[in-house]
Every structure is written in structure tokens, then in C-alpha cells.
Amino acid sequence: MVSARERRRRMIGVSFGPRSMAEALEGLPRIAAEADIAELRLDFFEEPFDLPALLRDRPCPVVVTLRPVDQGGRSSLPASARLKILETAAGLGAEYVDVEWDAATPDAIRALKAAGAQTLVSRHDFQQMPPDFAERWWPDMVERGADVVKIVGMARTAIDCLPVFRVFKRATLPTVAIAMGEAGLPTRVLALRAEQCFLTYATLGSGARVAPGQLLIKEMREVYHADRLGPRTAVIGVLGPTADADLVARHNAAFADANLDAIAVPFVVGADAGQVVRAFRELPVAGWQVSGDALQASIGSTLDDLSPGARRAGRVNTIVARGDGALIGDWLESPEEQRAAWGLCGAMRDTQNAANS
Questions:
Q1: What is the C-alpha separation between 132 and 150, in angstroms, rounded?
Q2: Are residues 217 and 312 located together in one domain of the fold?
Q3: Which of 172, 192, 225 finishes a domain?
Q4: What residues form DSSP beta bridges with 192?
Q5: DSSP letters spanning 142-210
Q6: In whole angstroms, what is the distance from residue 152 CA to residue 129 CA?
Q7: What φ, ψ does residue 104 adopt, rounded to 5°?
Q8: Final residue of a domain: which of 205, 225, 245?
Q9: With 70 as the cut, is the pLDDT of residue 352 above it?
Q10: What residues pair up with 264 in beta bridges, in sequence order?
Q11: pLDDT tens for residues 2-38?
Q12: Across the chain, what does the average pLDDT equal?
């Protein structure tokens, strides 16, 4: 049975690639203690696996996955053999099975569903963010009969995150959409704002990390306060040449302490910083923190206007969007001033009103 906790939308799952039965049976309870669901990667096994033993007393819901090499996995089995194993897993009670898009024939999907599992239909690109990620990849998975759509691309720049958010805007089915890599980190967090987000993946921090850019589940809970995120959560982008984890953590701790429905996430940028800020108007982002001396000194030239304080300082550490969409650079001395400039007092009132209604 699917538990009440698992039925909650926007779950956090742990991708788990055990190499042995002993590692699998030891690791699944640890995942159950911290996550809502486990992705059980059978293709990581280096010895024969025992599906009845894995699924009989599983401590949490699972997505059983047997990923082939061309989709980032380790299985060399032909599609027919992989599908037979997934069908067996479904018959043994696995809540979900993950089948790759090119193996998701109508007959395969019917067999998997008849065996009792819901089906994720997935597609991955480990080289780039496909140009038709939202416009074609998502509907194609739906057409193949998915109960849950999973599509994943590689982010080379922060702008490569945008197709993920466009997917969630159009999604009408539960969806997993991710941009891998350091530049794609915002998608792993901000997916949790989307109504149709099925889950986002994290890692326990031990064993093999099965995809580039995965966050520790402890970070998801303690730094990004994942359980608090929803469609009305305001987004603050922390711009910098590297992901400033300490600054992000300080912002998010302050938001939580003040009961603000807001989240700060890092956007790794270079010379494209101004382009990133302009492009993310569609998210939308409530405001930006600019980190790093060189970026603070240069980004003002890409904005629509500067405040008197920014002109005096010759630097920008805060970006806000006016009602007409113009991007204004400012220099503010305290986090309290920044939160006021970003309009986050309203986020606090909205949260309190929702709790009282």
C-alpha cells in the first residue's frame, strides 16, 4: 500500500545504488528514516539481487529502477529483460517502476500497470539541456502512457534551469523535472514549489551518488527547509561565481526564524549574470543577493537603474524588480533592509493568514 506520507505531493526521495544485498538491506531503513521514498537502482548491484527479499519488508515506498548505460545507468541487459524484471518488481508490490522512454511501448506499459505498479516514464540527457525539453520531451512521456513523467537534462549555465520551470508550468501529471550539475541546483530545490512536482531527489551522503549535482538530504531539510516550500514561496536568488553555501544558509535560517515564506538558492554565474537576472523574470524571483566583489562592481551596468546608495558605493549587493518590471540595483547594509526591499514582510503575512484561515 502507498502510505499517507508517500501520497503527499512534492516528496523528497533518495536515489540509492547499492552494490550488494547486504548494503541494500542495511541502507533502505536509513533512507526511510529521512526520506519519503527510495529510488532503488538495481543496475548498481555487483552481485545477483533478490527482489522478493528487497521488497517483502521494505520500510518505505520505492521506485524500482534498472537503468541502461545509454540513459546513465549500468545495466547491459536488453530492454525485454529489464522490463521483465520491472514487471516482477511490480507484481511483488513495488509502488512505482521506472522505465526508459525508448522501452516504453504500449505493450510494456500495459504489462507494468497490470502487474500493479504506477509507471514513471523517464528520459535523460547527460550532455546538455535539450532545446525541446518542455515543448516536446514532457508531452512525449505523457503520450507513452506515463503515470509520472520524469525528464532530466544537464545544466551548463544557470539559464539552463529555465526549461525545468517551464515544464512545471505546463504539467498536468505528477512530474519529476531536473537540471543536473552544479548550475542546476536551483531546480532540485525550487521544484518543490510546483503543484505537479512528484518528488525531487537527494542523497544520504554515503555510497555512490547516482547523478551529478544531488544535494544531501540533510541540506534539503536543514538548509533549504524543504518541508516548508510551496507554490507561494518567494524566491531569492544568490548570484555569485560559486555557490555561496554559507550566505544561502544564513538567509534561509533568517527566513525560517521570522516565519517568512521565502527561500534563497544559489545561482552560479559569470559574465552572464545580467542575462540570468533578466531571464528569471518569468519564474518569478522576488529579488537577488549579489555575492563577490567583482560581480558587485560590474553587474550594475546590466540593470535598468541604480539607487542613490548603489551609486555612492559604486557596487550592487541587492537587486529588486519594480512593479513595471525594471531591475534596480541597490547597496543595503543589513539583511533586514534587504528583506524589506524584496517585499518579504508580505510573505510573512500571507503565511500567517493561511495558517489562521
A1: 15
A2: no
A3: 225
A4: none
A5: HHTT-SEEEEEEE-SSGGGGHHHHHHHHH--S-EEEEEESGGGHHHHHHGGGSTTB-EEEEE-SSS---
A6: 8
A7: -85, 65
A8: 225
A9: no
A10: 236
A11: 333 333 457 999 999 999 999 999 999 999 999 999 9
A12: 91
Residue 291 CA to residue 293 CA, distance in Å, equals 7
Give the H/E segment covering residue 99: strand 96-100
b/e map 165-182, b = 16+ CB within 10 Å: bbbbeebeebbbbbbbbe
pLDDT above 90 as % of the chain = 84
Between helix 79-91 and helix 106-114 the angle, nearest 10°, is 20
d(CA 25, CA 211) in angstroms, rounded, equals: 22
Range of the domain at 246: 234-355
Asked if residue 304 lies in contact with residue 332, where contact means CB atoms within 8 angstroms, the answer is: no
Instruction: Identify whether residues 120 and 169 lie together within a single domain.
Output: yes
Write out the three cell numbers for 106.
504500449
Which residue do the cell numbers 520531451 mark? 137
Assigned C-alpha cell, 150: 520524469
Residues 205, 245 within the same domain: no
Distance (Å, whole) CA 204 – CA 16: 9
CATH number of the domain to which 283 belongs:
3.40.50.10860
Give me the helices (H) in the chain, please: 4-7, 21-34, 51-56, 79-91, 106-114, 138-143, 162-170, 185-190, 217-222, 245-257, 273-279, 293-298, 308-313, 335-341, 344-356
Residue 203 has pLDDT above 70, yes or no: yes
Q: CB of 26 within 8 A of CB of 51? A: no
Long-range CB contacts (< 8 A, 24+ apart) of 325-329? 325/281, 327/277, 327/278, 327/303, 328/303, 328/304, 329/290, 329/299, 329/300, 329/303, 329/305
User: Which candidate, 62, 64, 20, places its Cα nearest to that of 44?
Assistant: 20
- Provide the terminal-to-terminal Cα distance of the chain, rounded to the nearest Å: 32
